[in-house]
Write a structure and sequence with these properties.
This protein is 42% helix and 8% strand. With 235 residues, the chain is of the alpha/beta class. The chain has a single domain (19-234), classed as Rossmann fold, CATH 3.40.50.10310. The two termini are 31 Å apart.
Length: 235
């Protein structure tokens, strides 16, 4: 897969897409076996699949997000929610100048909560933006792929993210074994304690279960599920 679009201005003029798709990720720790860019890479893999399937204008990713819960782990860099809001709004305004009036945000990082507010506010009077995938989309993708874990128990650096990267960019995944699995189901005070309050390794989930075939099936399921979101956006 490509993590940056390679289309030219002439390509996009010919395509004439009315919908753009923007991957939004993060730059944060994912243990010793996944790169800091994991969430961005996952978002890019999904966005590229959607763009190819539905003829959307694929944008380069926003690769920094709201990762403050990962503070203290080496390499993690965050931007504020207000900054992320402004970046998204500026991109949307620039697209509208080109008559591209619909924007899909493909979010690869659960901590980017503010994206939901951005999309809801944009859609007050008519559909302008969509946020994808939703929690239910992720859960269905896990089931379709035959994954053993749920969204809650496998929340960071686990079976899902490892599987998608093994399918989309296997060279980015380092050696993993069962000693890397770490479960911490009760994370009631995550917003106070941060990830460091629940995991020393930075992982919450079962990365040892990651598998390229599962990742491929998950991406296919997400791509199929997006059609309903797109239909409502264009309604």
């Amino acid at each position: 897969m490509k993590f940056l679009p390679t289309s030219t201005s002439f390509d996009e003029a010919e395509r004439g897409a009315s919908v753009a798709v923007l991957p939004v990720g993060s730059f944060e720790q994912h243990g010793h076996f996944l790169p800091l860019t994991t969430d961005t890479m996952v978002a890019c893999a999904i966005a590229e699949s959607l763009a190819n399937k539905f003829g959307l204008f694929l944008l380069p990713p926003v690769s920094f997000g709201c990762s403050h819960e990962h503070a203290g782990f080496a390499g993690t860099i965050s931007i504020g929610a207000v900054t992320l809001c402004r970046v998204i709004e500026d991109i949307r305004a620039s697209l509208e100048l080109q008559e591209v009036r619909k924007l899909v945000l493909v979010n690869g990082h659960g901590g980017n909560y503010v994206l939901g507010n951005i999309v809801q506010e944009a859609n007050v009077d008519k559909p302008r933006m969509a946020l994808f995938p939703h929690r239910d989309d992720w859960e269905q993708a896990r089931k379709t792929a035959g994954m053993a874990t749920s969204n809650h128990e496998d929340m960071h650096g686990g079976e899902l993210e490892v599987s998608i990267l093994l399918a989309a960019a296997p060279e980015a995944v380092r050696e993993i074994d069962t000693s890397d699995d770490h479960m911490s189901s009760d994370r009631t005070h995550l917003h106070i304690r941060g990830m460091a309050g629940y995991t020393e390794s930075g992982i919450v989930g079962r990365p040892s279960l990651g598998d390229a075939t599962k990742g491929k099936l998950a991406l296919e399921e997400l791509t199929a599920a997006f059609e309903a979101h797109l239909r409502f956006l264009l309604d």
